[in-house]
Amino acid sequence: MIILASASPRRKELLQKLCDKFLIDASDAEEIQFADSPKELAIKNAVFKAQKIAEKYSAEDIVIGADTIVTLDGKIFGKPKDKNGAKKMLRELAGKKHEVITGLAIIHEKKIFTAAESTEVFFGEMTDEEIFSYVETGEPLDKSGSYALQGGAAKFIEKINGDWSNVVGLPLYRLRLLAKSAGIFI
C-alpha cells in the first residue's frame, strides 16, 4: 500500500496523477528549522514526516513524505504566522526571482530514498493594495512563501523555470524517478 504522509489537498490531487490507490495519513512530525542548506532542510523534514508515519505500517508499505520551502537570497520562507506575516513575505518576494524547493522521502522495506526538486519562480511587481486583497482571501495563510501558484497568486507570477508541480507541493516527475530508483513503479 502507498501512504502519503501529508494532509495537503494539493499533494493528494497531484499524487492521484501517478497512482489511483493510496492512503493519506498526515504526519505530525516536528519540523526542524535549520540545516546546512535549504535543500537539506526540505529533505530532512520530508524524511521526518515519512518516518513518523512509516512506524505505524508494515515494512512492505510505501510511505511518501514531502516538504516544500521557498527561499530568496538564502532566506527561508515557511508558512506565515498570520496575515501580517503573509503581507511581509509577499512584499519581499514581489518583483523578484525566488526558489521553491521540495524535499522528497520514500520509505520502503526499512530503506529511505530521498531527492529534492528546485524551481525558479519570478514574481512581478505587486502593490500593497494587491497584496492586501490577496491576503484577505485567506489563501496565503497555510502556504510556504504565502502564495499558491494554482490559486489567486497566479496573476502575480511572471514565469517559472522548472517543474510547476514542485511549486504546488509535489514534484511528480522527480517523485516518479525516485520511486523507480527504489524499485517501485507507481
List keywords for this structure.
7 strands; elongated; 6 helices
- Helix % is 25-40%
Number of DSSP strand runs? 7
In terms of quaternary structure, what is this? Answer: single chain
What structural class results from the helix and strand content?
alpha/beta
Write the layout of secondary structure elements.
Blueprint: E1 2-4, H1 9-15, E2 23-24, H2 38-54, E3 62-72, E4 75-77, H3 83-93, E5 97-108, E6 111-123, H4 128-136, E7 157-161, H5 164-168, H6 172-181
Parallel strand pairs: 1-2, 1-3
Antiparallel strand pairs: 3-4, 3-5, 5-6, 6-7
Give structural notes.
The chain is α/β, with parallel strands linked by helices and 186 residues long. It contains six helices and seven strands. Strands 1, 2, 3, 4, 5, 6 and 7 form a seven-stranded mixed β-sheet that branches. Helix 1 links the parallel strand 1 and strand 2. Helix 3 crosses helix 4. The radius of gyration is 16 Å and the shape is elongated. The model has no long low-confidence stretch (mean pLDDT 94).
Please outline what is shown here:
With 186 residues, the protein is an alpha/beta fold. The chain has helices at 9-15, 38-54, 83-93, 128-136, 164-168, 172-181, and strands at 2-4, 23-24, 62-72, 75-77, 97-108, 111-123, 157-161.
